[in-house]
Structure formats: C-alpha cells, structure tokens
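Following up on my earlier thread - several people asked me to post the actual chain instead of describing it. Fair enough. Here it is, all 391 residues.
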Amino acid sequence: MSIAQRRPAAAAGAARWTRRRAAALLALGFAALALTLAATVWRWLGQAPTLAYWPFAWRYDPDLPVSPHTWRQLWLALAQSAAALALLCGALYAKRRRLAWLSAAAALALLTDWPSPRMLLTEAHSSSYQRSPLPFSDANLLQGGRLYQAHCAACHGAAADGRGELAASLPVWPSVLGPALFQNRLEGELHWRIAHGGQEPAAKPAMPAFGSTLSADEIWQVLDYLRLRAYGAEGGKGMPAVAAPVVDLDCRDGRATLLSGLRGLPLRVTAHAPGASEEPQDPRLLTVALTRGGGQGVYADCVAAGEEAWNAYALAAGVPPDELAGAQFMVDRQGWLRARRLPGAAPAWTSADDVCGPGGRMEGTTARGLGQLLQAMDRAPIAIPDMRREH
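Reply from S.P.:
Thanks for posting it. Predicted structure:
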C-alpha cells in the first residue's frame, strides 16, 4: 500500500478512535451526572422535605443499618452495569463483531446481581414525605389529646403506654406510643398507618383504619399531641426536633401576639409559681411567663395567661398541669425546644443530643449556665426548617 493510500486509512482509523473516545467520555459524563443527581436526591430526602406525593414503593432511610456484604454487592452490581454500558457504547461504533459486543453487554446486564431493595431501602407510601400543615399550637395539641383519648386510649392506654383497657383482648398487643414511635419514622408514614390501619392491606390489620372516622387534619392533631407527649417523657431523647408550642402572648412592648412572632430571638419559657422568687432577667434572651390566670405582678417580657398554654407546656414537661409551676424551657431562634428544667428536680438544664442541643446536664441557673446553653444552641442550629403555617 502506498503512502497516499495509507493516509486515508489512518485518517479513518483516527476518526473511529475519536468517535469511540467521545462515546466513552459521553458515557462517563452521563454516569457522573447520574451519580451527582442520586447523591443530591439522597441528601435532600435525608432532610425529609414536604412532598405531596411519593411515587415509589421504597425510600432512602439514613438510619437503616446496611451490612458490608450488601454494600459490596451494590458496588459490584454498579461496576457490572457500568461495564455493560461501556460494551453497549462500544457496539454502537464497532465495525466488526458488533453482535458479540451486544451479546456481551446483554449477558453482563442479565447476570448482574442487585441486592434486594429491602436491604438498602425502606418501604414507602404515597404520603411518606408529607408533613403536618397545622400550626403546632396549644389549641391543636390539646384537641389532638382529646381525639386520642376518644379513639385510641382504649387500646394504647391513656398514657400512651400500650396498656389500654382493651389491650389484653386484642390479637396483637398495642404498641407504646412514646419516643420510639418518632425515632425512625416519617410523619407522613405514621399518618398513613393511622388512616389505613396498622399493617399492609393484604395482612390482617393489627389496628383498625381511622381514615373514615378522623379527618386528615384530626390525624395530624393526634400525631402532634403524641409527639409533644413523647418529648415530655424523655426530653427529646432519640427523637427528631420538636417545636415549642405556639401560644397567645401579651408582651409589654407589644412586639408579638404569638410565640411564633418572637422567631429570631432565644427564649426562656417559665411556668410562673406564685410566691416564688422571680428569675433574674437576662438581656441575651426574652422571658415568656406562663400563668394560669392574669399576668398581674409577673415580671417577664411576655405573658401567656391561657389555660391551654399552661396545659400544652405541661405535656412538654411530662408532668400533670398542677405540677408544672417552676418548670422552664429554652427555645432557640428558630422556635425549637432545646432544653428544659423540670420543677422539683436538681437545678439543672437537661437537653437531648438527638435534638441538636447541648448534651447531658448543665448544673446551676447562673449566667454561665445560660450562656453555655445560648452558645450551644447557636453553635449547633437545627437544620430542618419549620414549614408549618401560623395561626
């Protein structure tokens, strides 16, 4: 072959190599884009945003334990799939043995052993990523308590301890509706369980469906009541963040009429005890006093004098309303409950690590103790925004 004949052949070979390299780079680009999108969705879903409808039967759960064997199986399956994609791209530009390339790609894809979705994902429902649209207010919380006592207490117990009067007669013992209920479950899935029953429709339900008895908002009210009661039981240990109940206020300077109107400022909510010495005011925060009557003689920036406000915070303290006097709560700038000091206990603030607050106990009520709390709340803010509507 002459030099003149070799040049077109070499140019054609170079062109084929360029096309194959472009195809490989394109495949790698699509793979990188897919991985980036998957990582973004993975992180996004980990923050449990509000979605009106979830179209898949599975969802990602960051708390689901996955064995190393399952991870290895997943990475091997991804590598085999990438190799099959590369063979397919090669077959598109191959001049010879294209059928062999396609056969190899198909065989590799068919032989890929993907792990079962149950090993990596959690079963989901259409409402999995829905969240309560109702204000986390004293009125809604107490209404949820009344609905719970009317429809749920006979089985799950008045104290949500699973010891209702009908519990022993049921085929499946009712569950305890405490902190563990919210530890690894989304609000929307709990709502679905209450509306449709305790198990999948194909199985014999352990709990009746309340979708025809309670409205969607009433089910949200029951869940919000149980959430605050669970916080009262353990101080938020093992739970997602819990908002401070929104109550009506009477502020000295008229700055707000609702607790949610004080967002942006750290708050100390105190249950006023008549005859007790007043807490010293701290310029670094606002003090909200809960009273069971008027606010006369109460030295605080704002006063919540309603009976419902008092009862809602008694739930957050985990004590009967008659024993709430003297309790205190720390609320961060976004409106989340971050620490509490129970009446009659040692003079210490207690906060749960799982709600991003300072861990353990902080002894004393001095400025140093409050300063530590304020610094810890600002240093570790809760990332999930509170999307609920106000009153």
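Residues 82 and 313 are 56 Å apart (CA to CA). That should answer part of your original question.
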